[in-house]
């Protein structure tokens, strides 16, 4: 499969180049030159397949012969080694739990697959790959744990001091091996600015083979399609074959992958995009005007994105046809106050504790179902992170209901190490050069 840039469809690169470049020079995003529609035999019998089998079939159709079947299978079995169950909370309302991977967030799917694909394409004797990643919390943990121990790679994570939760910080700072954490005395935007400047710095690019591991990488998008097919497979086993997916959205990679799955033939009735106060897309779906805004800080901070990068991919999937897009996707946006109410209601009514991102998706699904009474249709909202990653959000009586996974206790026992730096680029650059 070749990949074009959303800014230039005449540009064509191999999968390997698309993965290592992350972004085309023209600042578009990579998209597959054609989107294969999966065969009916597979789609009608999804309930017969396991998650790794589904993942392999989907990936092979998307990638063609870029990675030979045996190697692709090995990559998938190594990367997607945890489960993604749907849990019925009330009749026809399901939560798709995507937080059973090592970093307890759905970003594990993308980060683990991408790290293994990168490692696969790195030839023996090639220069070590240096991944630079700025994180506001979840991305860094998934990337760190995705690359941990992957040969010929090294990850440097920049995170804002005092602005990530305790568990998130432990996930960034206790890895050792080929992972190092830099605690920046600034905001997430400062971290991102440092990383961006590093990519344009001549001396650093001469010294290191730098790559970013951000959410726009096509190798992060592809594995996120797997769990949509797999969720549908689980529904089929329960005798339901109509589904609405509701996705808590920030950069719109997650829902973008769902739409890609739909394009590949997954029979989804409707998508709901749920956001916090950063409502650029829900506003667009209402007014038809796409107006990016500066991001505002909320309780669901992994979705604090005012100008979602993956939106151009979604527009591209629909060939810029806004009418079709609006028929398939509805948007809802909620305030922090509504988010807290949603957490309470979900805890009270269904005895289920959801992280703030997930709670927004639950609320949006509820609202959608009230307005469109699809009785024979199941609604699945995606749970993007384990609630224990956001302890400060919950009242004590809700917090005490959270089952803290064993990985967390393990983290507490490990030694934590981070290097503290200011927001000064020269200081950051010196650190990188001195610690080559
Ligand atoms: C990254 C993240 C999101 C947003 O996903 P996008 O693909 O950027 O839309 C939602 N919830 C959590 C917990 C996240 O970490």
UniProtKB/TrEMBL annotation:
Q: In which pathway does it act?
A: Amino-acid biosynthesis; L-threonine biosynthesis; L-threonine from L-aspartate: step 5/5
Catalyses which reaction(s) = O-phospho-L-homoserine + H2O = L-threonine + phosphate
Tell me which Pfam families the record gives.
Answer: PALP, Thr_synth_N
Question: The Threonine synthase N-terminal domain covers which part of the protein?
Answer: 2-79
Span of the signal peptide: none
In terms of domain of life, where is this protein from? Answer: Bacteria
Q: Which PROSITE patterns match?
A: DEHYDRATASE_SER_THR (PS00165)
Q: Give the EC number(s) listed in the UniProt record.
A: 4.2.3.1
Query: In its keyword annotation, does this UniProt entry include Ligase?
Result: no
Q: Which family does it belong to?
A: Belongs to the threonine synthase family.
This chain belongs to the protein called: Threonine synthase
Native source organism of the sequence:
Mucilaginibacter litoreus
């Amino acid at each position: 499969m070749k990949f074009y840039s959303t800014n230039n469809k005449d540009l064509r690169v191999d999968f390997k180049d698309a993965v290592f470049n992350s972004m085309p020079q023209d600042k578009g995003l990579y998209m597959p030159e054609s989107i294969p529609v999966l065969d009916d035999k597979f789609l009608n019998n999804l309930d017969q397949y396991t998650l790794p089998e589904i993942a392999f079939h989907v990936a092979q159709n998307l990638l063609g012969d870029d990675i030979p079947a045996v190697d692709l299978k090995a990559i998938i079995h190594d990367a997607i080694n945890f489960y993604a169950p749907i849990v019925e909370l009330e009749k026809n309302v399901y939560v798709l739990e995507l937080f059973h991977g090592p970093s307890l967030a759905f970003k594990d799917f993308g980060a683990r697959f991408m790290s293994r694909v990168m490692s696969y394409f790195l030839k023996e004797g090639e220069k070590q790959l240096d991944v630079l990643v700025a994180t506001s919390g979840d991305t860094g943990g998934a990337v760190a744990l995705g690359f941990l121990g992957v040969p010929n790679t090294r990850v440097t994570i920049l995170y804002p001091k005092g602005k990530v939760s305790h568990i998130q910080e432990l996930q960034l700072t206790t890895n050792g091996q080929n992972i190092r954490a830099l605690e920046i005395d600034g905001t997430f935007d400062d971290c991102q600015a440092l990383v961006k400047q590093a990519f344009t710095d001549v001396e650093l690019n001469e010294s290191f083979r730098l790559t970013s591991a951000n959410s726009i990488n096509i190798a992060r998008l592809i594995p996120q399609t797997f769990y949509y097919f797999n969720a549908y497979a689980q529904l089929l086993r329960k005798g339901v074959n109509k589904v609405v997916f509701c996705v808590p959205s920030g950069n719109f990679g997650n829902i973008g992958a769902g739409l890609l799955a739909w394009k590949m033939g997954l029979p989804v009735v409707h998508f709901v995009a749920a956001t916090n106060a950063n409502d650029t897309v829900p506003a667009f779906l209402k007014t038809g005007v796409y107006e990016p805004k500066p991001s505002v800080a909320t309780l669901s901070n992994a979705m604090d994105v005012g100008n979602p990068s993956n939106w151009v991919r979604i527009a591209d999937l629909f060939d810029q046809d806004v009418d079709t897009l609006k028929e398939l996707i509805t948007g809802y946006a909620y305030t922090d106050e509504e988010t807290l109410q949603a957490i309470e209601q979900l805890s009270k009514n269904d005895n289920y504790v959801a992280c703030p991102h997930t709670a927004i998706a639950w609320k949006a699904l509820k609202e959608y179902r009230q307005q469109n009474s699809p009785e024979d249709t199941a609604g699945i909202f995606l749970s993007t992170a384990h609630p224990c990653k956001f302890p400060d959000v919950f009242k004590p009586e809700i917090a005490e209901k959270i089952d803290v996974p064993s990985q967390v206790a393990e983290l507490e026992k490990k030694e934590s190490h981070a290097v503290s730096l200011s927001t000064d680029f020269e200081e950051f650059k010196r650190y990188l050069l001195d610690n080559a």
